Known about the structure:
Blueprint: H1 3-12, E1 15-21, E2 35-41, H2 46-50, H3 54-57, H4 63-79, E3 82-84, H5 95-101, E4 105-107, E5 113-115, E6 126-130, E7 161-162, E8 165-166, H6 168-175, H7 181-186, H8 189-193, H9 195-198, H10 204-214
Antiparallel strand pairs: 1-2, 2-6, 3-6, 4-5, 7-8
Bound molecules: cobalamin (B12).
Residues 86, 92-97, 100, 107, 111-113, 120, 122-124, 161, 166, 168, 171, 188, 191, 210-211, 214 line the site of cobalamin.
Amino acid sequence: xTWRTLQKEARERHLxxxxxxxxxxxxxxxxxxxxxxxxxxxxxxxxxAFTQSAEYKDNRPDAMDRWSTRVINAWxxxxxxxxxxxxxxxxxxxxxxxxxxxxxxHASPINFLVHDTAGLFVSFxxxxxxxxLVDLPPSPQSPCNTCTDQPCRAACxxxxxxxNGYDVPECKAYLDTPDGAGCMQTGCAxxxxxxxxxxxxxxxxxxxxxxxxxxxx
Length: 217
Ligand code: B12
């Protein structure tokens, strides 16, 4: 199994390989796992495909999580892999830690994760725990290392998301005001401010969907 083949299979499912690593016992992955691969949406193809799915159309809760479970579980079965998901309630699996283990996803100046092509819009739909050792491509350094302006540091209109941490109540209080409509309709201003995110192709409708999910829809 090569990385290239996996990437092709991911794209056929409107997913993208964000990075991978060879786990040690400290990583808390299934014992049979020799390679853990983190999966995100393949932008901008993901949103049109997802909105055509049965999960999106049935109006039941957690449509994207149910879509991810169905699609990734079916793929894993074909590959003899185990699946791991970032959602499903506490205790959550350590996706933040796994992301940084790839060497390709890093903590940004405001502590959200940042990726070489997704920027601050990096997000996970699941992970494949593969029983074989897959050769991994080289990991690019954090895009923040060469980002001189670092607009993410000052992009939040109410300074809820800064290098000192994330004030979730402050963020949500702002989202409930008329001024918060920009973040609600086009996505978090901090994530949008990242120069890498700008080039990523995340559709506005998808960002609005996540913001509604996050802020009590
Ligand atoms: C709980 C949670 C939240 C909570 C609390 C977040 C908070 N207080 O910071 C709430 C509901 C508020 C939240 C909100 C959002 N979240 Co959230 N959230 C999670 C969730 C489900 C669990 C986190 C957790 O407890 N993990 C378990 C712990 C034990 O494991 P761990 O994550 O590896 O823990 C380590 C890290 O947290 C690390 N750590 C923490 N801070 C730092 C800082 C540095 C510098 C380093 C190196 C490490 C580090 O230390 C921990 C111990 O090792 C994760 C998914 C997941 N399974 O991880 C998503 C996740 C972190 N969220 C994510 C997203 C996308 C969002 C939203 C942007 C959703 C949206 N709108 O689209 C919003 C933020 C709103 C906004 N501004 O847009 C993404 C990450 C995005 C990113 N670029 O970083 C994740 C990975 C989900 C996903 N499916 O991709 N979230």
